[in-house]
TrEMBL record:
Family: Belongs to the EROs family.
Key words, A-Z: Disulfide bond, Electron transport, Endoplasmic reticulum, FAD, Flavoprotein, Glycoprotein, Membrane, Oxidoreductase, Redox-active center, Signal, Transport
Gene Ontology cellular component terms for the protein in this record: endoplasmic reticulum membrane
Gene Ontology process terms (BP): protein folding in endoplasmic reticulum
Subunit structure: May function both as a monomer and a homodimer.
Gene transcribed to yield this protein: ERO1L
Organism: Ceratitis capitata
Active site positions, chain numbering: C372 (nucleophile), C375
Main location, first listed in the record: endoplasmic reticulum
Cofactor dependency: FAD
Subcellular localization(s) per the UniProt record: Endoplasmic reticulum membrane
Protein name from the UniProt record: Ero1-like protein
Length: 450
């Protein structure tokens, strides 16, 4: 069922089912499989275990803003193991992502405080500062925050009270047993409330947006649906690939044997059990992969300038080199997703873009309703990573900064026009890592099923 459906052949030039020029990309599932499995996956695998990427700051305690909590935290495989503070690199704890980041202390600009030019500059700034009332300062800060948030596709919460570091390596995404009405309500809300869909009382999601109906949607709506569906596929591939094959007898000890469950994968994606939708859902995984891949390519000049600071000098240097290498491979992909085909229709598009943002922000709020902590953790990380990718693709500020050659300058000021927080960067790379792993895992299932 990877290539049996009739229209697979028709759209051989691209697995994207969107209409319009996006269908003209010259990629095939095979091209992406090969590119990912040989070039991207192994690089990400070694990068994402590094300290900079393994600690993710997140708030898992927010209450659900939409309906009463139906949390199933008692499920033992849902629990998130807390992070031992002493394992978190000092550089991350020191970091205040809002203002002077710890990494900034080590940039050339920061080190050059004896430079008279820098002093002059600062004294002018401080003169202006003291002439402002505290009230005005607060207003400016509020405006600046509002301005920055304008481009966000997600609610950023890393500075919220209650956020804490989680070690992703000791809390891998895998089967948790989370299912039933609580899980279905989340998926239904994401698809139905946010996917511009028809009002439909049906309980089955596949009845709600069957593949053929996608052709009646406009490009942006289809893209939105396919992105969510691709994320859904990715999560379900992971739980099938890291399934609980055998439980330990000891109820208090959440150990077990984890591995691929081919039957589970078949049930979730074969045409017979999904009303022929499964293969399309799998193709949507490639679609979201291409979206995030393109975001990395677009942000590459910016990402190359990041410090990836943890305070462990040797590792920080290694990470920078590994990022450079990965970004060069990402940039070398020949059939990148063309983000300009979306929102390219004048004033109506602008309205649509804002609606899109609002809907994605809603999805990040819905993640606070996921009734299993581990699923919530990975759900939040992946939606934040996706939101960051969309922010990169549709950020005017990034365009302006890139066009003005900002990233090529020898020194970049502390607060450039476009900036991502550490949490956004960690989410972006880890979310892409999840998609890359899904494509890799799918190859394994494919081998067994051949
Ligand atoms: C945010 C989130 C994170 C989760 N993380 C985990 C996890 O880490 N580990 C874990 O074990 N479980 C996780 N789950 C639960 C998991 O995704 C399933 O909901 C659960 O296993 C029940 O599966 P199901 O067969 O009932 O179908 P579901 O996956 O719940 O899907 C419901 C319906 O949606 C349709 N559908 C299925 N896949 C797609 C698709 N790709 N595109 C479009 N429509 C589709 C089908 O009609 C299906 O019946 C998570 C759920 C959510 C909402």
């Amino acid at each position: 069922y990877f290539n049996t459906p009739d229209d697979f052949d028709k759209s051989k030039n691209c697995f994207c089912e969107l209409k319009g020029s996006i269908n003209d990309c010259s990629c095939t599932v095979d091209t992406v499989d090969h590119f990912n499995n040989i070039k991207i996956y192994p690089r990400l695998k070694s990068l994402l275990v590094k300290n900079f990427f393994r600690f993710y700051k997140v708030n898992l305690k927010n209450s659900c803003p939409f309906w009463p909590d139906d949390s199933k935290c008692a499920m033992r495989f849902c629990q998130v193991q807390n992070c031992d503070e002493q394992h978190i690199p000092k550089g991350l704890i020191e970091e205040n992502e809002n203002t002077n980041s710890a990494a900034f202390k080590y940039t050339k600009e920061a080190q050059s405080s004896s430079c008279s030019e820098a002093e002059d500059y600062n004294s002018v700034l401080s003169y202006l500062d003291t002439s402002l009332s505290d009230q005005a300062h607060r207003e400016f800060e509020r405006w600046a925050k509002h301005d920055e948030a304008e481009e966000d596709f997600c609610i950023l919460e890393h500075q919220n009270k209650g956020s804490q570091y989680v070690d992703l390596l000791i809390n891998p995404e895998r089967y948790t047993g989370y299912r039933g009405e609580s899980a279905h309500r989340i998926w239904r809300s994401i698809y139905m409330e946010n996917c511009f869909g028809r009002k439909n009382e049906s309980k089955s999601l596949s009845d709600f947006i069957p593949h053929l109906d996608l052709n009646d949607m406009c490009l942006e709506q289809r893209a939105f649906y396919r992105i969510i569906s691709g994320l859904h596929s990715s999560i379900n591939i992971h739980l099938s690939a890291k399934y609980l094959l055998s439980e330990s007898k000891d109820f208090l000890d959440p150990q077990g044997i984890w591995g691929p469950n081919v039957e589970e994968f078949k049930r979730r994606f074969s045409p017979e059990t999904t009303n022929n939708e499964g293969p399309h859902w799998l193709r949507n995984l490639y679609f979201i992969y291409l979206v995030e891949l393109r975001a990395l390519a677009k942000a590459a000049p910016y990402l190359r300038r990041e410090e990836y600071y943890t305070g462990i000098a040797e590792e920080d240097e290694e990470v920078k080199l590994a990022i450079n290498d990965l970004l060069s491979v990402v940039e070398s992909f020949s059939s990148h997703f063309n983000e300009n085909v979306l929102f390219s229709n004048g004033v109506a598009s602008l309205k649509f873009k804002n609606e899109y943002k609002e809907k994605f922000r809603n999805i990040s709020r819905i993640m606070d309703c996921v009734g299993c902590d581990k699923c919530r953790l990975w759900g939040k990380l992946q939606t934040q990573g996706l939101g960051t990718a969309l922010k990169i693709l549709y950020s005017e500020k990034l365009n302006v900064a890139t066009e003005s050659g900002l990233w090529e300058r020898p020194h970049i000021e502390e607060n450039p026009i476009f900036k991502l927080t550490r949490t956004e960067i960690v989410a972006l790379f880890n979310a892409f890592g999840r998609l890359s792993t899904s494509i890799f895992e799918m190859e394994n299932f494919r081998k067994v099923l051949r």
